[in-house]
């Protein structure tokens, strides 16, 4: 696992990477029990598609009203995440403990 953590430290500064870490000590936060992916495209950022991962497959959600709650959920998760510099220190400390 240490090489994987080290790799995350190496890529955290790339301009196309935004690493979000929500530490365990923050406790429960909205969305931690849902696996989903939000797709937005540069050509039309107002259009979103959400893919919901399920134990027996998945489901695509489309439409502004239906995807809005997942976009809000994503914003809440981003707000719960620690900043990039703290994330780097967290990863370095974690790798050192392995």
TrEMBL record:
It comes from the Bacteria. InterPro entries: DUF5753 (IPR043917). Residues 1-91 form the DUF5753 domain. This is DUF5753 domain-containing protein. It comes from Amycolatopsis rubida.
């Amino acid at each position: 696992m240490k090489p994987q953590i080290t790799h995350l430290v190496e890529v955290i500064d790339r301009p196309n990477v935004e690493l979000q870490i929500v530490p365990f000590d923050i406790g429960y936060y909205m969305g931690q029990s849902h696996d989903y992916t939000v797709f937005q495209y540069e050509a039309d950022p107002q259009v979103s598609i959400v893919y919901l991962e399920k134990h027996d497959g998945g489901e695509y959600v489309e439409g502004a009203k239906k995807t809005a709650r997942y976009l809000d959920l994503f914003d809440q998760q981003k707000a719960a995440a620690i900043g990039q510099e703290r994330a780097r220190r967290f990863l370095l400390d974690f790798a050192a403990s392995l």
